[in-house]
From TrEMBL:
Residues 77-276 form the Peptidase M12A domain. The active site is at 177. This is Metalloendopeptidase. GO terms for molecular function: metalloendopeptidase activity; zinc ion binding. Gene3D superfamilies: Collagenase (Catalytic Domain). One of its GO terms (biological process) is proteolysis. Zn(2+) binds at residues 176, 180, 186. The gene is LOC114433673. Residues 1-21 form the signal peptide. Binds 1 zinc ion per subunit.
Length: 355
């Protein structure tokens, strides 16, 4: 009897020891998660990619600007590829379908973070990331490789977007790498950045100055955005804890702290891909909004006309663009018909009221 008691006492001791250890571990994890959640996308990327060169294998692509992959050094000064065909194609329904594959080595929790990032784009743009099919020619292969990185724009065939399991699986980081894959560069490399950011090369780690080179970016009239998810932070690549970038004219303005895509990030994505308001998820106009609906339709007609002019100017892409324009005209006509129907309803109601 005493023997059994001793045994069970021992069992209780062992059990509690195991569970104390567990809960301590969990607390450490939670503390880590909490401090990480304070970090901006820019800081997360720097943290995840800080020791990559030590672990690089020959199979890894060359990384520039921290997380942009290139196949060879000669691409370093490449023009923004969106003007030379690296945008993803638009379907006849006005949406841009980007096929993706998520590697099996991610846990279901990690996959959920990635999927949330992918799906966020459909709530504010005409970009639709969808699972790849065997017939897809170009697709994103989302894998946990050495750090967080992506190529800029559509590369043709399979292109890796690396989201390392340690350090890259945050909503904003996923959006940042996907924006690279959609053709966007870092904010501080914009052609007009010298009007908004003073780069202090004397504080940059030697050999890292290329991260601050300017690119002849296609800015599409979008404002420079300190809150862009693509803007690096004040001390990025600093060798001496002094700032590497200072805003102009007010040096104290905070920047580089984004945790997800800003309104400007969304607006310029919609501009680059010419996402029309038709393909956005928009509730049907109510009767009181008929005149606004007409305005929207007119704006759409103007947009279509502008696109037709563009088609004239660019014979090389005439075929594809005409198809898009035709689809838009059909969509606009459908909307005009819908608005006319609503106007008829309003008129009928007015007649009723007057009667
Ligand atoms: Zn980046």
């Amino acid at each position: 009897m005493a023997h059994i008691l001793r045994l069970s006492a021992l069992a209780v001791l062992l059990l509690s020891a195991c569970c104390w250890a567990d809960s301590e571990l969990q607390e450490e994890d939670t503390a880590e998660e909490l401090s990480v959640s304070e970090l901006s996308v820019s800081e997360l990327l720097e943290r995840a990619n800080s020791h990559l060169s030590e672990f690089r294998s020959d199979n890894d692509p060359i990384l520039i600007e921290g997380d942009i992959a290139i196949d060879s050094e000669t691409e370093r000064n490449a023009d923004p590829c969106t003007s030379s065909g690296c945008k993803w194609g638009k379907a006849s329904d006005g949406k841009v379908y980007v096929p993706y594959y998520i590697a099996n080595h991610f846990s279901s929790r990690e996959k959920a973070i990635i999927t949330r990032g992918l799906e966020s784009f459909s709530s504010f743009s005409c970009i639709r990331f969808r699972p790849s099919k065997s017939s897809d020619r170009d697709w994103l292969s989302i894998e946990s490789k050495n750090g967080c990185y992506s190529f800029v724009g559509r590369r043709g065939g399979k292109q890796v977007v690396s989201l390392a399991r340690s350090g890259c699986l945050y909503h904003g980081t996923v959006q940042h790498e996907l924006l690279h894959a959609l053709g966007f560069n870092h904010e501080q490399t914009r052609s007009d950045r010298d009007n908004h950011i003073k780069v202090l090369l004397q504080n940059v780690v030697s050999g890292m100055q290329h991260n601050f080179r300017k690119i002849a970016t296609l800015n599409q009239g979008s404002p420079y955005d300190y809150n862009s998810v693509m803007q690096y932070h004040r001390y990025a690549f600093s060798k001496n804890k002094q700032p590497t970038m200072v805003p102009i004219p007010n040096a104290n303005v905070s920047f580089g702290n984004a945790k997800e895509m800003s309104r400007n990030d969304i607006a310029r994505l919609n501009t680059l891909y010419k996402c029309s308001s038709i393909s956005a998820k928009r509730p049907p106009p109510t009767i009181g909004l008929v005149s606004r609906g007409v305005g929207v339709v007119l704006a759409q007609v103007e947009k279509v006309m502008a696109q037709e002019a563009e088609v004239e100017a660019n014979r090389a892409v005439v075929g594809a663009q005409v198809a898009v324009v035709v689809a838009r005209i059909a969509a606009v006509e459908a909307q005009v018909a819908a608005v006319e129907a609503r106007v008829a309803v309003v008129e009928a109601q007015l007649a009723e009221v007057e009667a």
